[in-house]
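Listing S7. Sequence submitted for prediction.
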Amino acid sequence: MSATLLTARAPRLPLRPLLALDAVVTGANGLAYALLAGPLGRLLGVGRTPLLVLGVMLAGYGAAVGALAARRQPAAALVMAVIEINCAWVALSLLSLFLWFEPTTAGLVWIPAQAAVVAAFAVLQWAARGSRGQ
């Protein structure tokens, strides 16, 4: 193998669009949780009040991530905070299945599925952090 092949870098993903997509998905999820807390709570086996609180928090977090995505050069520390918060969300989502909630079958599918999406955002954002031409 040539040294060129060994040292070639994979192209980096653009960070700002990843942050923007994260903001849209998180914000939409948050609005759905907040506005439909009763029906979604029953469907997922999560209480109305926790889902309402999570929804409001997610809508605010989505707005904050959207504001970060709108910056020409998102601050590295804030990008890392988003990645770390996303990782914490994944861990807490999975723990919630056993510690706090009594999910229905739909909840047993939805909670890990949304955690997987958030994990994918964290991994892609980690890979894209510090890239130029965002």
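Caption to Listing S7: primary sequence and predicted structure tokens for the chain studied. The radius of gyration is 17 Å. The helical segments are 3-7, 15-35, 37-44, 48-70, 76-99, 105-128.
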